[in-house]
Amino acid sequence: GNSVTQMEGPVTLSEEAFLTINCTYTATGYPSLFWYVQYPGEGLQLLLKATKADDKGSNKGFEATYRKETTSFHLEKGSVQVSDSAVYFCALSDRGSEKLVFGKGTKLTVNP
Amino acid sequence: IAGITQAPTSQILAAGRRMTLRCTQDMRHNAMYWYRQDLGLGLRLIHYSNTAGTTGKGEVPDGYSVSRANTDDFPLTLASAVPSQTSVYFCASSGLRGEGYTFGSGTRLTVV
């Protein structure tokens, strides 16, 4: 079945550091890929998405590229801020279904 | 503001009691979902509905039931609560294929 594996946290960085959160997936066909962010005490919000190979999703300085050859969708940001502290979830949806399969989440803490 | 409303925000419930978590959306999305979020386990799908009048079981459906009488509402019922159902519950909806989910703010349920 479909699955998503993302790097275990927690991840702690200093402000302005470079961020990478790894995400790999297993799926049949060509899934759509997503990153969601959950700020403390809130629900999940869509951060960015990509629907086909080599697509790059971007939002709020975050980027992720759909790499079919490595089945990956790593999240990156060049310079993190304290306000980026949150839990980040990688997810996929199969073409034949709208149901999302989520990774277990990676908690990011950015210190001033 | 269009979105998903969940109620209550939090609840402490005695074991054995019945409880309904409410979820309403105003985006006319066809599909709706209930997830529970537990530390270390990520998000797990409880039940879903692809359209009004239909429901399906997710990964962890035991002890929960849902109904979808109309497009907007998707209540989740715990018939007889047990402590293992202590969790944060999120309702979500999806509209166009490949667009991902919109999440509610969650209900924090503690069963004692």
Structure explained in plain terms:
By secondary structure, chain A is mainly β. Chain A is built from no helices and 12 strands. In chain A, the strands form 3 sheets. In chain A, strands 2, 5, 6, 10, 11 and 12 form a 6-stranded mixed beta sheet that branches. In chain A, strand 10 (86-93) and strand 11 form a beta hairpin. Chain A is globular, with a radius of gyration of 13 Å. The N and C termini of chain A lie far apart (41 Å). With 112 residues, chain B is mainly beta. Helix content of chain B is 0%, strand content 48%. In chain B, strands 2, 4, 5, 6, 9, 10 and 11 form a 7-stranded mixed beta sheet that branches. Chain B has a 4-stranded antiparallel beta sheet with strand order 1-3-8-7, with no helix packed on it. Classes of the chains: A mainly beta (112), B mainly beta (112). At the A-B interface, strand 5, strand 6 and strand 10 of A face strand 5, strand 9 and strand 10 of B.
Keywords:
heterodimer; A: 112 residues; mainly beta; six-stranded mixed beta sheet; four-stranded antiparallel beta sheet; 12 strands; 51% strand; B: 112 residues; seven-stranded mixed beta sheet; globular
Share of helix of chain A, binned: under 10%
> Whole-Å distance between the termini of chain A?
41 Å
Instruction: Tell me the radius of gyration of chain A.
Output: 13 Å
Shape of chain A: globular
Task: Tell how many strands the DSSP assignment of chain A holds.
Answer: 12
The proportion of strand residues of chain A reads: over 45%
Distance between the termini of chain B: 35 Å
Q: Overall mean pLDDT score of chain B?
A: 94
Lay out the secondary structure:
The complex is a heterodimer of chains A (112) and B (112).
Chain A: E1 3-6, E2 11-14, E3 19-21, E4 23-26, E5 32-38, E6 44-50, E7 56-59, E8 62-65, E9 75-77, E10 86-93, E11 100-102, E12 106-111
Parallel strand pairs in A: 2-12
Antiparallel strand pairs in A: 1-4, 3-9, 5-6, 5-10, 7-8, 8-9, 10-11, 10-12
Chain B: E1 4-7, E2 10-13, E3 19-25, E4 31-38, E5 42-49, E6 56-57, E7 64-66, E8 76-78, E9 87-94, E10 102-103, E11 107-111
Parallel strand pairs in B: 2-11
Antiparallel strand pairs in B: 1-3, 3-8, 4-5, 4-9, 5-6, 7-8, 9-10, 9-11
